[in-house]
């Protein structure tokens, strides 16, 4: 596949799904973080399976493991959904992260060997592995034009994180880049909104 194909897909699919992206941006509170998602409420609303991005959602960029508070939240998610119904769908599934999850949450699976988000391949694989309809899958991501767009395109539910975890002190350049990228995505979605 051509390098950067997922970036081009983000623009073309973003144009196609601009109405849904615009609604998602308008209706998601600015302080939304993964800890604001209540597993019991999600389950009551028909969600049976979680697809979680890693960077920004479970920890700041480049960390090998989720933050302690997120680990507690993951335990609550396990109680609601079952560990085998929680997947990590990251464009950077490092071996270090896989090892950590294998030790602490062994039934959670990393999805790899698929095209990067926003392509729907990872979500399709999750739906198949969990044996559920994609409408029952919540894709939790801090990026509008990758995970959230992939969810909308695949027919899954997008869970947009507008207040991601960042660590400017430890990784100022990487975190600044992604802050700028998120800001740019929001600007693009506002510009593409349907009239």
Radius of gyration: 16 Å
The CATH superfamily is identified as HAD superfamily/HAD-like
Strand order of the largest sheet: 3-2-1-4-5
CATH class: Alpha Beta
Return the structural class: alpha/beta
CATH architecture: 3-Layer(aba) Sandwich
Shape: globular
What fraction strand? 5-15%
CATH topology: Rossmann fold
* Secondary structure: helix percent: 40-55%
Number of domains: 1
Order of helices and strands: HHHEHEHEHEHEH
Distance from first to last alpha carbon: 35 Å
Per DSSP, the total helix count is: 8
E-strand count: 5
Whole-number mean pLDDT: 92
Give an account of the 3D structure.
The protein has 195 residues and is of the alpha/beta class. The protein has a single domain, classed as HAD superfamily/HAD-like (Rossmann fold, 3-Layer(aba) Sandwich). It contains eight helices and five strands. Strands 3-2-1-4-5 form a five-stranded parallel β-sheet. Helix 1 packs across helix 7. The radius of gyration is 16 Å and the shape is globular. The mean pLDDT is 92.
Defining traits:
195 residues; alpha/beta; Rossmann fold; 5 strands; 9% strand; globular
Topology readout:
Layout: H1 5-16, H2 18-27, H3 39-44, E1 49-52, H4 68-81, E2 86-88, H5 95-104, E3 109-110, H6 121-130, E4 137-141, H7 144-154, E5 157-160, H8 172-192
Parallel strand pairs: 1-2, 1-4, 2-3, 4-5
Helix pairs in contact: 1-7, 2-8
């Amino acid at each position: 596949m051509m390098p950067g194909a997922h970036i081009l897909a983000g623009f073309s699919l973003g144009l196609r799904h601009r109405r849904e992206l615009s609604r998602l941006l308008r209706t998601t509170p600015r302080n939304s973080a993964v800890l604001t998602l209540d597993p019991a409420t999600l389950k009551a609303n028909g969600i049976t399976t979680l697809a979680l991005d890693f960077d920004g959602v479970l920890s700041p960029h480049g960390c090998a493991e989720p933050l302690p508070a997120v680990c507690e939240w993951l335990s609550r998610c396990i109680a609601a959904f079952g560990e085998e119904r929680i997947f990590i769908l990251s464009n950077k599934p490092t071996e270090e992260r896989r090892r950590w999850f294998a030790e602490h949450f062994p039934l959670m699976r990393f999805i790899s060997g698929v095209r990067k988000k926003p392509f729907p391949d990872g979500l399709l694989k999750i739906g198949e592995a969990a044996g559920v309809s994609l409408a029952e899958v919540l894709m939790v991501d801090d990026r509008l034009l990758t995970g959230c767009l992939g969810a909308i395109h695949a027919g899954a539910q997008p869970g947009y994180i507008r207040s991601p975890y960042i660590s400017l002190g430890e990784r100022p350049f990487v975190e600044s880049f992604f802050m700028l990228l998120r800001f740019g995505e929001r600007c693009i979605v506002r510009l593409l909104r349907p009239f």
